Amino acid sequence: MFITEVYQKLPHPLLTFIVVKKRHHTRFFMLDDQQRTINVPPGLVVDTDIVHPGQFSFFLNSHKALQGTNRPALYHVLYDEIQFTADELQLLTYYLCFTDPRSSTSEAIPSLIHQADLAASNARDLFPERDK
C-alpha cells in the first residue's frame, strides 16, 4: 500500500485559519456621563458596519487598558472547515485571551498568537544576516 493511500484513509482534523491583526489605526470610544470619551469595556465585539461586508471579520476588544487607549484586535477568518457561527468564534477568541500563563488578566490577543510572535522575534534575533 502506498503512503498516499494510507494518508487518504486516515481521518483529517477540521481546520479554521484566522489572521489576527494588532497593528492598525482603528480605535473605539464611548461617552461617559460628562460626555468625555472613555475606553470601551473588555469583551466588546464589532462585526458590522466598519468590517468588510463580504468577508468574515470582526474587531474584538478583549482587555482593559491600563494606560492610554485600547487597541482592539482585528480577526479575519480565512478558512473555516469547522463552520463556527460568528458568536461561537468570537467567544472562543475572547476566551483564548485569558490563557496566557504569565498574566492573571486578559491579554489583547490570544496567548497562542503572542507566543508565536515572541518565537518569531527570537528567531529573527538569532539570524540577523537573513533579514535583508
* First-residue to last-residue Cα separation: 45 Å
The gyration radius over C-alpha positions equals: 19 Å
Low-confidence stretches: none
How much of the sequence lies in strands comes to 15-25%
Mean pLDDT: 87
* Major sheet summary line: 4 strands, antiparallel
Helix content: 25-40%
Q: With helices defined by DSSP (H or I, 4 residues minimum), what is the helix count? A: 3
- Output the helix-strand order: HEEEEEEHH
- Strand order, biggest sheet? 1-6-5-4
Q: Tell me the number of strands.
A: 6
General shape:
globular
Which structural class matches the secondary elements? alpha+beta
At a glance:
Helices cover 26% and strands 21% of the residues.
Give the tags.
6 strands, 132 residues, 3 helices, two-stranded antiparallel ribbon, single chain, alpha+beta
How would you portray this structure in words?
The protein is an alpha+beta fold. The chain has three helices and six strands; from the N terminus they run αββββββαα. Strands 1-6-5-4 form a four-stranded antiparallel beta sheet, covered by helices on one side. Strands 2-3 form a two-stranded antiparallel sheet.
Please specify the SSE layout and strand pairing:
Layout: H1 3-9, E1 16-21, E2 29-31, E3 37-39, E4 44-46, E5 57-61, E6 73-80, H2 86-96, H3 111-126
Antiparallel strand pairs: 1-6, 2-3, 4-5, 5-6
